[in-house]
Design goal:
By secondary structure, the chain is α+β, with helices and mostly antiparallel strands. It is built from six helices and four strands, in the order βααββαααβα.
């Protein structure tokens, strides 16, 4: 499962937010990896728009696993002050998940399968487009 999400960092806290993420606590890094957060990246626009990307077997399970760790509770408490519009939620609960509308590899796999089927059905006509 590929997940993309959005948060808004307060513009006056961007420099400190970047600094905190330059050296995330090792125990937090291990907790994320142990709880199914793989290929996890954060991207920050200069106005504070934060886009996150993670691959995980289950976002719900990954979030639930992190919620059971003490290090996540400490990290989220410290990071909450950096974000706008959380309305009392922790950052890891308050992000907006974005809908995936395109993935190259998925469409290539379908196109390859379709092309293979077309070639098998009519080998002389498969490439006449």
């Amino acid at each position: 499962m590929r997940v993309c999400f959005q948060l808004q960092v307060k513009p006056d806290r961007i420099a400190e937010y970047k600094q905190r993420h330059a050296a995330v606590w090792p125990e937090m890094l291990h907790a994320l990896a142990d709880n199914g957060w793989h290929n996890y990246s954060l991207f920050l626009r200069e106005d504070g728009l934060l886009i996150g990307y993670v691959e995980t077997p289950s976002l719900d399970a990954a979030q639930e696993g992190m919620a059971r760790t003490e290090v996540n509770a400490r990290w989220q408490a410290e990071m909450a002050e950096f974000f706008e519009e959380l309305e009392g939620r922790r950052p890891d609960e308050g992000f907006l998940v974005l809908e995936e509308v395109f993935h190259l590899e998925d469409q290539l796999a379908t196109a390859t399968t379709d092309q293979t089927a077309a070639t098998a059905a009519a080998p002389d006509q498969a490439f006449e487009k």
